[in-house]
Input
Amino acid sequence: MSTKLYRRMIYFLAAMVLPAIFLLHSCSEDDNVFVVPGDPIEEDYAIHFIDVGQGDAIFVETPEKVMLVDGGWSDGSVVSYLEGLDIEYIDIVIGTHPHADHIQGLIDVFYEFEVGEVIDPGVTHTSQTYYNYMSVIDTYDIPFTVGRKGMEWELSEHAHMKLVHPVNPTEHHLNNASIVAHVTLGEVTLLLTGDAEENAENQMLSEPELLASDILKVGHHGSNTSSQMAFLEAVNPAISVIQCGADNPYGHPHGPVLERLDAIDTDVYRTDLHGNIVVIIEDGVHYEVHTHQ
Output
C-alpha cells in the first residue's frame, strides 16, 4: 500500500470510529463488512462518495492512479475534500454528462489541481456551466477523450476501468448520454451510472454480463426514471449508494426505487442520511463501508 493511501485510510478509520474486522458478510454481525471470492493481492483501494448535496462526486484511489467521477456543484466541497486527502494530481476526471450538478464543481477542480485526462460523452449543452467547463479544459489544455462503450483504462496493476455506455449519445436526452463506468479494484467491482435512465439501462441490458458489480452507484440520485428491476438484478450489488441532497425538491430517492433495492437485498447507503460514504478495500477482496457527516 502506498504511504499516502495508508495515511488516508487511517484517517477515515479513526475519524469514523469503526472497527476494522474483515469477515464474510453472510456470517458477519457488522453490516458494513464484506468480502468477495478471490485471492488476496498486495493492493489496497478507496472509493469516496462525496456528499455534495443534490449531485454526484465519486473519487477512486488506487496505488498508481486516482480518478474523479463528476464534481457536484461549485461550492468548494469537492476541492476541500480532495485537499483534505493531500491530493495534488488527478490522473482521470470523468464528466458523466453536461448537467450542472455533475460538472459545475469540476470547473473548480480544474483550477486547483493538475489533471491528466478528461473523459466526457462529447454531447453539447446550451448552459453557461457547460460553456465554462469546456472553456477551462481548453484553457489548461487538458487532454480530452470522448468516452464510448468498450474503452478501457488501466488504473494500477490489478485495477482497471471499462466503459459500458454510451454508444451513440445525443444532446436530446443528456441523462441517457451518461458515461457508465465499470471499475475493477482487485476482485471488487463498482458500477458508476451517472444519471442513466431506463432507455440507457435497456441498451446496457443487451450485455448484462458487463454489469455485475459488488457496488452500485444508483442512477439519477434514486429517481424512478432509473433503476428498473431488470437492471438492478443484472448488477446484483451487495451495496448500493444513492447520492442525493437532504430534503431535495425532487423527492429523491423515490419510494419505488427503494422498494426495488430492498427486493434485491442490497445494503443501501445515502449521502442525504450518511454524509460522506467511504469504501475501504484491503488486499483486493475485503471491503468495508464507513460513513461520516
User: Anything to note?
Assistant: The chain is about 25% helix and 25% strand. The mean pLDDT is 91. Residues 3-16 form the longest helix (14 residues).
